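Supplementary notes for students who missed Thursday's class. We covered one full example, reproduced here. Read the sequence, then the structure, then the short commentary at the end.
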Amino acid sequence: MEEIVESLRPTPKKGENRQKNSPEKSSNLDPQEQQQSYEPGMRVPTAVLDGCNDSFVAADERRMKASTVFFADTGLMALICRHDRVLWLVNMTSAGEKQYYALCLLQKLFMYIPESMRVGVLYDIGCQLDRSCQRYGFLSWVLDRIVFGISVFHAYGHQWPCQLIYHPRKCEGFGLTDGEGCERFWSSIQSLIPSCRVSTYYNRIYTIDTQIKALDQKSLLNMGNWMRCKWLSTDLKMKEAEELLSEVYEEEQWRLQVIEQTKPLKQQSKGLADQQIREILALIKNADEYKDHIDELETWILDGNYSEEANLDDIQEDLEESKAKLAKLQTSIKNKKTKLSVDGRLSLTKLMGNAFLRQRMNALALKQRLRDRLRHRKFELENVERAYRNTINHAKLEAHTKQHVKRKEPGIQTLARKYNALCNDLKEMIKAKKAPLGAIAPFPIEMSGLFKLDVDDDIWQDVGLTDDNDEVREIPPWLGNECVQKGIKSLLELDRCMEEKHRLIAENISMRQWMREEWVIVTSAIQFSVDDPDVIYQLNERRKVLLRLCVAWDPAVKMIPIDDELPWGPDSIELANAHHFEYNESVNEKNREVEQDWKDQDMDHEDNLEEDMDDIDDMLIMDEIDALADEFSTNL
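Structure (token representation):
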């Protein structure tokens, strides 16, 4: 796979920019038109995808990577099912994740599944993996069977339009799967890190395989309880969502919201122009200050109204310097205006004549800065939240990271308060009729949930901060109606809950079919192996394992309804005997634990008695020594 990736997308040489050879950069489109475009096969604008890529590239550069000089294998990448069971692992031999590892795992998966099966893939940067597959033709033979998404707890690193398309809570088909199984798997094998770091290659592979086998056995036994917990939590979320829902209307409004917010939005397509406009406005403000200062100096000279301490030569020198700086500023402003596009010049003209628009632009810039700071904070906390290992050095690093992040929180909160103050100012301007027709006030940020970065938080949406609704007489309900917004969230939650329930029902049926098939195979094998006691023993052990699974699964999944009550495989007598055996084993285990506790207490008691006897012996010896000393002194 590495050779295929290199042939289709060669790694840029040192110092060379990969984007230089991309299809967009090699086209004849200017940068603004490129940002307004969609790449073939993608539903998210190019500018948004670039923003997601930059966010994770910056985070990856700050992440500590294993050295390829000292380690032949630098890490693992895993393909895990939604039940957190490992399907395949690959050894990483590079410093950091490479895309061909993920492509290799997916290629392996499709070699072992039916051709009619569709697969949902949740990956931290699923949007970039989808982008590469569409652009370079990776996995082209199965690409129409893959639905890409991003993992729930890493969605904060993605732009809002990207989350609308790729977030599993907003994307059809994923149910309530969160895509964070790898994180839970890394946590379960973290104890192997110290030993595997110094192990030989094959010893490390054997250790990891053994640990995975043990984890698989444990998770298989608990599969029924896992499904039961999923069903209960889904049922609870479903009831909460149904209370707020008027389905048909919200579904149409959600469709309109996705269409509108995944366009090449104005604030994205003219991001460069907006930055230049902000620079021009800042220069104009500085120029106005210099003009006022020059007028003041000239008035002093004309009227002779300056203090005795002031020197006329100094005032004249200050005046000339101010005029030179003003001329330089005016030249810079003129040059920057010349470089602006037609739309940029119109925007500048509007901003120059409207205080509300200038204030709104400042609020948007402040919110974007706040979002970047919050993302950066989340990436910094990522290593702490994963808690891969608990060595002393890591504990020190974790404490240092927490302290470092804590120091930045007041600055982030200050930005949020400044933004909320600007929102209040904009609201007052709208009330005073100083805003364009159709302008709406942006939503302030709740300080209590500032650091959560949940997918439905207002921090992601720039409602009221762009000119999309200026001069529009009717604000769309998905944008301006709070009840409709809550209804849309409930609709999406309900859809995902319905998908989750359908999947759990299908998994319940598959579980019973698998058990019945395994039971028939084992029973038939026992009948055909009567002459081989060794094989019979192994088959009977397998039979016991299946019975134990039945006993664990059956009561747990009873609440998950299926149309026909499918049998498990073993008959009622075999299941009853297995229940009785498991009950006795659990009682015996408890008795053994109680006996062990008593033994531990007896040993502690004996140890205490020995210590007491030692203390008594020491006291007697001291008394004898004192008596001998007294007798010796008396004889003298």
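Commentary. Confidence is low (pLDDT under 50) at residues 19-32, 265-272, 386-394, 469-473. The radius of gyration is 35 Å. If anything here is unclear, bring it to office hours.
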